Amino acid sequence: MNPVTAYRFITSKQFAVVGASTDRSKYGNRVLRWYQGHELPVVPVNHKEAEVESLRAVGSIRDVSDPAETGLSIITPPKVTLDILKLGKELGFTRFWLQPGAEDKAVLDYAKEAELDIIAGGPCILVQGPGLLTHRSKI
């Protein structure tokens, strides 16, 4: 994991969890609750539910305010992730954390081709995030 990319991500003004789930056993819910548990501003992105973990959900990243200052945690199948990255770039998102399993070769190839600064390939925010939180106290 590139430390500069990780710093930029964790110091985002807000976060959005793409693939947020109402099922507390799924990673989309666990990641959302991680942000909540650390009192970080977070928006669940779920196209089926109006609310996740007592937060108003948005149906698409199109509905997330301030894309340039939002870190996107993506917990989706690779085919969906690819579409999210393409739309995210179009909308001006620059901070992406792909949870394990959200990427495949096509996703990584696109990210490289599009010059996206992403965290991918295995580090999970649930594992790596706590160690990065000290950087938030500096903003």
Give keywords:
139 residues; alpha/beta; Rossmann fold; five-stranded parallel beta sheet; 5 helices
Describe the protein's architecture and organization:
It is a single chain. The protein is α/β, with parallel strands linked by helices and 139 residues long. It has a single domain, classed as 3-Layer(aba) Sandwich (Rossmann fold), CATH 3.40.50. The chain is 36% helix and 17% strand. It has five helices and seven strands; from the N terminus they run αβαββββαβαβα. It has helices spanning 3-10, 27-37, 78-91, 105-113, 125-132; strands spanning 14-18, 42-45, 51-52, 55-56, 70-74, 95-98, 118-119. The strands form two sheets. The protein has a five-stranded parallel sheet with strand order 2-1-5-6-7, with helices on both faces. Strands 3-4 form a two-stranded antiparallel sheet. β3 (51-52) and β4 form a beta hairpin. α3 packs parallel to α4 (105-113). The chain starts with a helix and ends in a 7-residue tail after the last helix. The mean pLDDT is 93.
